[in-house]
Design goal:
Number of strands: 8
Radius of gyration: 20 Å
Helix content: 25-40%
Mean pLDDT: 93
Largest sheet: 6 strands, mixed
Shape: globular
């Protein structure tokens, strides 16, 4: 049990009022961030990418399914992963199907990308019980062009990645065992949300956010932050079918 203060209702209300001021400041800053995010320039994609989907080959424009906005989460599931996708990304994926209906009625199509071949994505999707469209970027330059993956030589040029490869902490070694990949291969995937817009026949890249940003985290972590104990200390993500109970 974490350390906590015992107090009266009046003391709780006074502390809660102080917290409310911080929450209001946070909400105001969040609104400013949202406004600035929407002011980012749109970058037209000059290449035509073709992906493997559960329903055959599709271009990026076709993934919009007739809507003008596309939001995708890039699940860390590289072609070298032998045991499945990243457990953390998998946990986030578990929580994407619920919002899809609401997003589709707001002119947004929600999908997921991964670099593993489509046959493995389909099998993993069935294992996890997911409903969202799962698209393979395997064999394309798309993930490298838009920053969803790194080529081996690129990874080694990033100081943080090089340090993790040269001196891997224990949690990363555990993670590598969970996905069944060498760290030098596993860490080349970037867990990210990426957004696109389609206007007058042109597809534009509009936004990307990559872990460790709080947005790139399982939604249940946001709920845990509102609980008395918060997120369990030392807890490590597991796939839902791997919990002991």
């Amino acid at each position: 049990m974490t350390e906590h203060t015992i107090g009266t209702r009046e003391e709780w209300q006074a502390a809660r009022d102080e917290l409310s001021k911080l929450e209001a400041e946070y909400a105001e800053l969040d609104q400013k961030v949202t406004e600035q995010r929407r002011k980012l320039p749109w970058v037209p994609l000059e290449k035509e990418y073709v992906f493997d989907t559960e329903n055959g080959k599709k271009t990026l424009a076709e993934l919009f399914e007739g809507r003008s906005q596309l939001l995708a989460y890039n699940i860390m599931y590289g072609p070298d992963y032998e045991l499945g996708a990243c457990p953390g990304c998998t946990s986030l994926g578990d929580q994407l199907d619920g919002p899809r209906l609401h997003l589709s009625h707001s002119d947004v199509t929600l999908i997921c990308f991964s670099r593993a071949p489509i046959e493995r994505l389909i099998a993993y999707k069935q294992r996890m019980g997911w409903e969202f469209p799962y698209v393979s970027t395997y064999g394309t330059e798309f993930p490298f062009d838009v920053g969803l993956a790194l080529k081996p030589e690129q990874a080694r040029q990033i100081p943080q990645v090089k340090e993790m490869l040269d001196n891997p902490p224990e949690f990363l070694q555990t993670w590598a065992k969970q996905v069944g990949a060498k760290l030098e291969d596993g860490l080349r995937e970037a867990p990210s949300f990426i957004a696109f817009a389609r206007d007058n026949g042109t597809v534009y890249h509009t936004y990307t956010v990559t872990a460790p940003d709080p947005f790139v985290a399982p939604y249940h972590s946001f709920l845990l932050r509102r609980t008395p104990k918060g997120e369990p200390e030392g807890a490590w993500p597991q796939r839902k079918d791997e919990y002991p109970d």
